[in-house]
Amino acid sequence: SPSDYAATGGCRQYSANIEKANLDVLQRESSQRKHLLSEALVCLKIPGTEVSEENAEILGHLVCDLGGEYIRSSGGNLLKQLSQCESFLPDQEEAIRSVISSGNTTFGPPGAWSAFTLNELDGLIPVFDHSILQKIPK
Questions:
Q1: So where does this one cross the membrane (predicted)?
Q2: pTM for the complete prediction?
Q3: Contact 31, 22 (CB under 8 A)
Q4: Do the Cβ atoms of 51 and 78 come closer than 8 Å?
Q5: Angle 136-137-138 (CA atoms, 0-180°, nearest 5)?
Q6: Cα(83)–Cα(80) distance, rounded to whole angstroms?
Q7: Would you tell me how many other CB atoms lie within 10 Å of the CB of residue 61?
Q8: Distance from C-alpha of 23 to C-alpha of 135, rounded to nearest angstrom
Q9: What is the pLDDT along the chain (138 residues), one digit of tens a residue?
C-alpha cells in the first residue's frame, strides 16, 4: 500500500518499487493488478480519467493496465509509457488509435512524423491500423 511508503516518498516510491517488480507474474486484469493500479491512482490523487505526463511517468508500467477511457482522456500524455507495454487489450488498442489519429499529441499528426517519432512510439506500431500507417511519410 502507498501508505507504507509515506516516510520514504509516498507515491513515487510505491510506483518505483512496483516498476522494479515483475508485474507479469500477476495475470492481466487480475484483482491484484487492479488493486495496485487503484492504490497508485488514489495516492497520486487522480480523480477522473485524465492522467498527466508527469503522473504517467510516476505510474511507470502500471500505465499498461489503464483502460481505454484513461488513454482517450489523457490524450498523448500516456503514449510514451504505453509504448513500453508488452501487449494491449482491444479497448486500449482502439483508444491508442483514436488518440494517434486525432493528431492532438506532442508528436503531432502521423503525416508530420519523422524517424525519431517512430522510434519514440516503437512499441505502439503494431497497434496502428492502415489509416494511420498510410499517413506516415516514407
A1: none
A2: 0.84
A3: no
A4: yes
A5: 115
A6: 5
A7: 19
A8: 35
A9: 666 655 555 777 777 777 666 666 677 777 888 888 888 888 888 889 999 998 898 888 889 999 999 999 998 999 999 998 988 999 999 999 999 999 889 999 999 999 999 999 999 999 999 999 999 998
